[in-house]
Design brief:
This protein has a 5-stranded parallel sheet. The protein has a 4-stranded parallel sheet with strand order 2-1-3-4, sandwiched between helices. By secondary structure, the protein is α/β, with parallel strands linked by helices. It has 13 helices and 9 strands. Bound molecules: phosphoric acid mono(formamide)ester and norvaline.
């Protein structure tokens, strides 16, 4: 059966839900949809399809990507703040899943527990997409891989270094995605923030199949050598705000600076890019940083020509659109 048909009705709760071929199919479809949108055309691939967006945590990119992608293709996306619906409070997650599944053709969930998105997928009867949980951020990784491929024309064999909180959702899904695509992934984090053994084992199993590799290093200088992609994320994820001071102490030596980018050896030859899922603390123009300044990345790196963070943000639309088109019946 063709991959397009195989994906119909499927959910995406973590990247391991996709075969390596299915993942590449979604990236190819996202490329085609981006090109079509750039040429000024809009389609009807989601005509009269209704998509629920359930959010327990804040979002700019993910929420807007779903809305714009649905509307581009003639569909409709409804934002449901978890504070304003009964989910888990006056009504079980299972009952809510069954109700929304009778009304909507697909659902994106962003929140805390991975278990919640799994329950929605199990009981709704429609495709459910994980728009970020404490554990994974698979739709982000699709946009990350698309952006990397746009810049290098390939994925296989490239070296990607994630530097920062190596256990967080973005780091884990990026690791899974790189491992599935035959890339050489390095997690660079202090020992206490290195990926968990079970997450590492899952990624290494994918890398074994694809010809990629997954390594964990603690020294930023060493990790950077020959890197093609330097990726970081906030030091404190949503829901962990109380850990701010501890993380700032642990992660200060892991800030992405121009010096660190030079350690790749690729700064002069154009064979390195910088990525960040955003939002980023790179200047003093936020409530959090106005006193303390930049955290995970300096403004110099963030604004540099090799920083592709806004292409990456735009690619959230094209990849989420591909996922919805491929999975909604
Ligand atoms: N990268 C990302 O998921 O951004 P939002 O939190 O704005 O959705
Ligand atoms: N790791 C971050 C990603 C935000 C898109 C968080 O969970 O807050």
């Amino acid at each position: 059966m063709r991959i397009r048909n195989v994906l119909k009705g499927r959910s995406l709760l973590r990247l391991q839900d996709l075969s390596d071929e299915e993942l590449l199919y979604l990236l190819d479809l996202a490329d085609r949809l981006k090109e079509r949108k750039r040429s000024g055309k809009r389609g009807c691939l989601l005509h009269r399809r209704h998509i629920a967006m359930i959010f327990e945590k804040a979002s700019t990119r993910t929420r807007c990507a779903v809305s714009v992608a649905a509307s581009d293709e003639g569909g409709h996306a409804e934002y449901l703040s978890a504070n304003e619906i009964h989910l888990g409070k006056k009504e079980s997650v299972v009952d809510t899943a069954k109700v929304l599944g009778r009304m909507f053709d697909g659902m994106l969930f962003r929140g805390y527990k991975q278990e919640t998105v799994e329950l929605l997928a199990k009981h709704s009867g429609v495709p459910v997409w994980n728009g970020l949980t404490d554990e994974y951020h698979p739709t982000q990784a699709l946009a990350d891989l698309m952006t990397i491929r746009e810049n290098f024309g390939r994925l296989k064999g490239l070296k990607v270094v994630f530097i920062g909180d190596g256990r967080n959702n973005v780091a884990t899904s990026l690791m899974d995605g790189c491992a599935k695509c035959g890339m050489n992934f390095v997690s660079c984090a202090p020992r206490e923030l290195a990926p968990s053994e079970d997450k590492l084992a899952a990624a290494r199993e994918s890398a074994r199949r694809s010809g990629g590799s997954v390594a964990v290093l603690h020294d930023p200088q060493e990790a950077m050598r020959d890197a093609n992609v330097v990726y970081t994320d906030v030091w404190v994820s949503m829901g962990e705000e109380k850990k701010m001071n501890e993380r700032r102490r642990q992660l200060a030596p892991y800030q992405v600076t121009m010096d660190l980018i030079r350690q790749t050896g690729n700064a002069e030859n154009g064979r390195v890019i910088f990525l960040h899922c955003l939002p980023a603390f790179h200047d003093r123009h936020t409530d959090v940083t106005k006193e303390i300044g930049a955290m995970e990345v300096t403004d110099e790196v963030f604004q540099a020509p090799f920083s592709k963070v806004f292409d990456e943000a735009e690619n959230r639309v094209h990849t989420i659109k591909a996922l919805m088109v491929a999975t909604i019946r």
